[in-house]
Amino acid sequence: MKTADFLGETSFKTHLERRRTPRRILTLCLYCAFLLAGTFGFHWEVTSQELEADRSNAPNPAASQAEAELLRIYDEMNQFAARLDPLTEHLGKPTCAHMISGLEGALGPSVEIERVLWKSELEVTKDMGKSVERTILTFTIEAVALDEKTATILDEVLAAYTGYEATIQSSEAVEDRWPATRLQIKLVGEPGMEASSGVDLNTEAVVEPPPVVASGASSTGMEVTS
Amino acid sequence: MGKDVLLATSTELSALSVVPVERLQMDRLQSTLEEAAVKSLEDTEGISYRYLPLSEPMSDNQERTEFLLMCLGQSEMRRCTAASEALGFRPVGLEISAFPEARALIQANKDITEAWAFLHLGLNHAYFGIALNGEIHFLKTMERAGSSLLKTMHDGADLSGSAGAPLGMAPGFLTGQEDESESSVFDLAQSQLEELQTLAEEQGTRLMSALRVEAANLAQEVRACLRHFHARNQGNSVTSLELTGFAAGLPGLHTLLEQSLKINTEVARPFTKLGIGAPADVLLEQHMWCSSLGLALRSVA
């Protein structure tokens, strides 16, 4: 209904707005209650997590006993560590026993192996601006070829057997055993590049091989006898 | 949550009038109303006025529009606001009591689609209004107020004529000789009681007679207003009348007005119609609490 208010409508509307204050307070109270409930929930979660952590940190007899046992085992292992470390280092180096063991069979009976020396080296090369390291095995084999033909192909036979690059370092006639020739051949290659073993290029000679005695020194200076 | 407070003040520095404005004068409506407001009151601090159109916006075939003009002296307005602030209250509204009263009655008579009227008979002021479609369409201050009705009834009762004895008590009542026999005392009491009843009936007749004269005068004023409303609002006639204020509770007044006006007349009962619970003494005199109810309903209606 229309009315005539001498104080104007604005003040009365403001008055009505003031009367809505309880509704606003109720809304705020509900919002605060919601936040309070959230806070209590978070507090409850934190408390439960703390209890869980405390339970985890509490001394466990079985775990303590296991820890003591582990420490004892570590102590015992440490006693052998000084001896195990060089062995581990040595075992980490490349091996060539499988090549040496088959070397006699590969060369055949017309060759007498006198000495085998080998060593491993670390070679650093530059590739596309990056330093590339690789391990290189170097064999130095001194052998006596009993005939002239064998002497001429001995380096090829060794290269075929080992897969390495073979170079004849020296050759000399064996005194009083003509036509036998003593050759010193150097083989250079990477471990793992070996050709299939058992290559026997000298099938013509059928003679009993003399007892082979190979001796050498590895890069570690250890004597190896096989 | 605070409570709202009603402060009622009565003043001579207010005026209520209906101002007709011709179609040709509508462009200078404000100045017309301002002139009417200045003429209606005198206040050294100035006059505040508000106005409401009493009919629908002017149509093409309507030559005249009526505006309800309410004027209040600035000094009176200042007095009202200062009084409420002195009591620690913040004034938020200042209305002429006819508006909250009409608001309460309109809310109570929402179901009535025809025009209906209300007559407020306060002790010092009276007004007559007509409501239609939830709005006031007529409002006029009446010449006769509740005090004049009371004075007329008092004079008509002629209380001074029974000096020396309380009203309704015959001379010699209960003052007979103690040594008389029981039968003679009984006869005397019986005759005195009959005399007392006769006096009471005579008194009531005089009161009703005085009230009838006053009601007829009041009805004449109301009838003039009804004629005016009917002339201005073709096709709308008032179907009922509700009485409010102090004098509405005078016994028999609403019956007399109903007989004179030939329209349904009753004492206003807005609390009962709206189903609002209130203390028993308020419900007993709810025709005197219409303004308070209307103020409380301002944000609703």
Protein model, in words:
The complex is a heterodimer of chains A (226) and B (301). With 226 residues, chain A is an alpha+beta fold. Chain A contains five helices and six strands. In chain A, the strands form two sheets. Chain A has a four-stranded antiparallel sheet with strand order 1-2-4-3. The relative contact order of chain A is 0.12. Chain B has 301 residues and is of the alpha/beta class. Chain B folds into two domains: 94 residues, no CATH class; 205 residues, ATPase, nucleotide binding domain (Nucleotidyltransferase, domain 5). Chain B contains nine helices and eight strands. In chain B, strand 5 and strand 6 form a beta hairpin. Chain B starts with 13 loop residues before the first strand and ends in a 5-residue tail after the last helix. Classes of the chains: A alpha+beta (226), B alpha/beta (301). At the A-B interface, helix 1 of A face strand 2, strand 3 and helix 3 of B.
